[in-house]
Design goal:
It is a single chain. The chain starts with 7 loop residues before the first helix and ends with a helix. The protein is globular, with a radius of gyration of 26 Å. Strands 2-4-3 form a 3-stranded antiparallel sheet. A two-stranded parallel sheet has the order 1-5. The protein is mostly helical and about 375 residues long. The protein folds into 2 domains: about 60 residues; about 290 residues, Lysozyme, CATH 1.10.530. About 5% of the residues have low confidence. Helix 8 packs across helix 11 and helix 8 crosses helix 13. It contains 17 helices and 5 strands.
Length: about 375
């Protein structure tokens, strides 16, 4: 393959965008100045040169890497590669993960203003009534009002009526899950549109580069991106949130908006009450509920523990089948320490609460872009 040469001018422009300016300095060296330049000055100068080299080299490397990617025409071999995967001929596909940028868009929620208001359970209930948002209608019409709440109500654990508490929890979580699925669906639609072209624009290639990083894809493998960039069944997501939070009543959910019990060994988190003294893990905490849902879906779509889940999901897609939460939940035995017992509990929650009724529910459009998904 012919390599693209990158000029010094291009590198200068790239460095300028990064806040670095390279200038040429004409130096007049007299005999006196050379004599006055002592060993200390030379040492300082050499140190500065070395430091600048170490700082600039990674930037230039990234620039060259991006230019190499953007200069290519993406060849759509992903369908053939995926068939090899299903036949067990390509064990390397979806087998590696670059974690560096996977949760960058989740961390963006941390930049939100810290003035989020926590509504009471009674206020939320009245809000749902005022907007005619109830689960009975959703089960029948498959349309969900775009009511997005950032925090669970503290009083949810005080609701004695179990069914009422469950319904309130589902009403809060359902729009959040559908919203994330919509984001993925729009991205997936764009991905296939790009791959079906013989040539792509620079904007499309930049978008692809961003998504490859977002999903932790190694070696710019578009087949792996296709497998990872996909939705999570709504019923399965609600069941996991219900199991991990006790239908919204757990300390992790109320204090840290943690709906899915994801662990972390670095950064902020909530220490489990029953954890051993030498245990270092915490439960990830989030600023808003939406961030928790996004992190959960990104976790399932990238972590090596859920490779079999993604492979089973891709196989359903390839056969033209709907994403069945009962089938796909079989591959979540590594989500909890209880393994297959955890899977059975999830499936029981799905069946007992008829959560599959929500799998084909659509979020009423809040923008023209979302209307295409209805």
């Amino acid at each position: 393959m012919k390599k693209n040469k990158i000029s010094i001018t291009e590198i200068k422009k790239y460095l300028k965008k990064k806040g670095l300016v390279i200038t040429s300095i004409a130096k007049k060296r007299t005999n006196n100045s050379r004599d006055n330049l002592g060993s200390l000055s030379r040492t300082v100068l050499c140190s500065l040169v070395i430091m600048a080299t170490f700082f600039v080299t990674p930037i230039i490397y990234n620039f060259v890497d991006e230019q190499t990617l953007l200069s290519k025409d993406f060849e759509n071999n992903s369908k053939n590669d995926f068939k090899k995967t299903l036949e067990g001929l390509d064990p390397d596909l979806d087998n590696k993960l670059d974690k560096q940028f996977v949760f960058d868009d989740v961390l963006e929620f941390e930049d939100l203003p810290a003035n989020t208001v926590r509504l009471s359970a009674s206020t939320i209930d009245q809000l749902f009534k005022d907007t005619d948002y109830n689960l009975k209608d959703v089960r029948k019409n498959k349309l969900v009002k775009p009511v997005s709440l950032s925090l669970l109500p503290k009083e949810i654990k005080m609701i004695e009526n179990v069914q009422k508490r469950k319904d309130l929890f589902i009403q809060i979580i359902l729009p959040l899950v559908i919203k994330e699925n919509n984001n993925i669906r729009l991205d997936r639609k764009k991905l296939f549109s790009i791959l079906n072209k013989s040539k792509n624009t620079r904007i499309e290639k930049v978008w692809l580069l961003k998504k490859l990083k977002q999903y932790g894809v190694v070696n710019k493998d578009l087949s792996t991106l296709k497998v990872r960039m996909d939705e999570v069944p709504i019923s399965m997501a609600i069941a996991q949130a219900a199991k991990e939070t006790g239908w919204g009543t757990s300390r992790f959910a109320l204090e840290g908006n943690a709906l899915f019990g994801q662990w972390t060994w670095s950064g902020e988190g909530i220490k489990p009450a029953g954890a051993d003294d030498d245990s270092t893990h915490k439960i990830m905490k989030f600023k808003v509920l939406q961030a928790s849902v996004k992190a959960y879906q990104r976790n399932l779509n990238t972590h090596n523990s859920y490779k079999e889940f993604r492979s089973a999901r891709a196989e359903l897609r390839d056969r033209g089948k709907k994403l069945d939460s009962i089938i796909l939940s079989e591959y979540l035995d590594r989500y909890a320490e209880t393994g297959k017992k955890y899977v059975k509990i999830l499936q029981l929650i799905i069946k007992q609460n008829q959560l599959t009724d929500f799998d084909d529910a659509k979020l009423l459009p809040s923008s023209i872009e979302l209307e295409s998904l209805i």
